[in-house]
Amino acid sequence: MRCHSGERPFMCEYSSCAATFSRKHDLRRHMRSLHSEDRPHHCAHCNLSFARSDALKRHLASEAKRNNSHPAIVPDSPGGEMDEVVMSDEEFETKEERDSEDE
Predict the structure, then answer these.
(1) Which of 1, 20, 61, 69 has the fewest CB atoms nearer than 10 Å to its CB?
(2) pTM of the model
(3) Which of 79, 81, 83 is CA-nearest to residue 71?
(4) Which pLDDT tens digit goes with each residue over 26-40?
(5) By the 8 A CB rule, do 48 and 59 touch?
(6) Are strands 41-42 and 49-50 parallel, antiparallel or unpaired?
(7) Mean pLDDT across the chain
(8) Which of 64, 82, 81 lies closest to 73, judged by CA?
(9) Alpha helices (H) along the chain
(10) Of 55, 85, 52, whose CA–CA distance to 70 is shortest?
(11) pLDDT of residue 67
């Protein structure tokens, strides 16, 4: 297994980038994240956009924490992207609070 041997045969094709990887998947993710101009994941609250959905999720979570609000994840939209909204503390309710209202 390459991950245990230290072998990193997959190299970034950009001469200014010295990144190497043991798995081809990791190289593809690196290329998509750092060297691609395609950024399909947009923040609904600012002008930032991201190459990967997990980067958008991290951004939303850090902004929610900074602004004292909570990210709410909405199931995948028809376009395949995760729709997320940020709610203030007044709008946020826990599962327990929702369940208690049903009783």
Answers:
(1) 1
(2) 0.54
(3) 83
(4) 999 999 889 989 999
(5) yes
(6) antiparallel
(7) 75
(8) 82
(9) 2-5, 24-30, 53-66, 95-102
(10) 85
(11) 80
